[in-house]
């Protein structure tokens, strides 16, 4: 019986995949991979058939997703060990639900191997912990883009991390002010976290727009609030 293994590749550098993820990848006969995964991972399964289902061939809209679902099912029906390799963690903004549903509908088993999601990688790389004793008790992962392509900001946690934020940092700053973040709130912008060309900007909600030129067109997350504060500044803010 075929089984599809979803593997989180992590945010960039190939060695940020988990040991289990790498072990499953090594056994793959077919790998359906996304644009945001490191080509160096191919070395783990050089004899497998690698199929690019990233944005180039498959648009991110529902038609593109439908085609990926169909391909995944078709591959699993003809091949025993199919891997679906996704950037970051498959459970975070990875369309995992739709792909699991398509497999379940076809009676195909699945396993999900977690990966390091971009928000967590950015926190590690910038040494800005997402939670802070006393002042950072909650973290929220939000998409800055709704499914209809509209920009949306939130203030639902002490640390708010926005995915898919790169294109409109300027408008995001306005929306953040609208939902109640102060202009002086620390904001961290990280693009291509984990890759050799990663970019980091440390700003405030009010000055977020300044990062537009540096991050345009790149996979970018924006961390706002407690988790964006530099540890050197954090000691002064802790209330004990
Ligand atoms: N499953 C992925 C997210 C996929 S959605 C994860 O867990 O990380 C794609 C969005 O993720 C991008 O628009 C960007 O906001 C973010 N992203 C993915 N990789 C990134 C990276 N290396 N650096 C910064 N942001 C990244």
From TrEMBL:
Molecular function as annotated in GO: uroporphyrin-III C-methyltransferase activity
The protein's Enzyme Commission number: 2.1.1.107
Keywords: Methyltransferase, Porphyrin biosynthesis, S-adenosyl-L-methionine, Transferase
PROSITE patterns per record: SUMT_1, SUMT_2
Record-linked SUPFAM superfamilies: Tetrapyrrole methylase (SSF53790)
Pfam families named among the record's database cross-references: TP_methylase
Domain Tetrapyrrole methylase residues, every copy: 3-208
GO biological process, one term: siroheme biosynthetic process
Source taxon at top rank: Bacteria
Pathway: Porphyrin-containing compound metabolism; siroheme biosynthesis; precorrin-2 from uroporphyrinogen III: step 1/1
InterPro entries: 4pyrrol_Mease (IPR000878), 4pyrrol_Methylase_sf (IPR035996), 4pyrrole_Mease_sub1 (IPR014777), 4pyrrole_Mease_sub2 (IPR014776), CobA/CysG_C (IPR006366), Siro_Cobalamin_biosynth (IPR050161), Uropor_MeTrfase_CS (IPR003043)
NCBIfam families with a match to the protein in the record: cobA_cysG_Cterm, PRK06136.1
UniProt similarity note: Belongs to the precorrin methyltransferase family.
Name of the protein this chain belongs to: uroporphyrinogen-III C-methyltransferase
Source species of the chain: Leptothrix cholodnii (strain ATCC 51168 / LMG 8142 / SP-6)
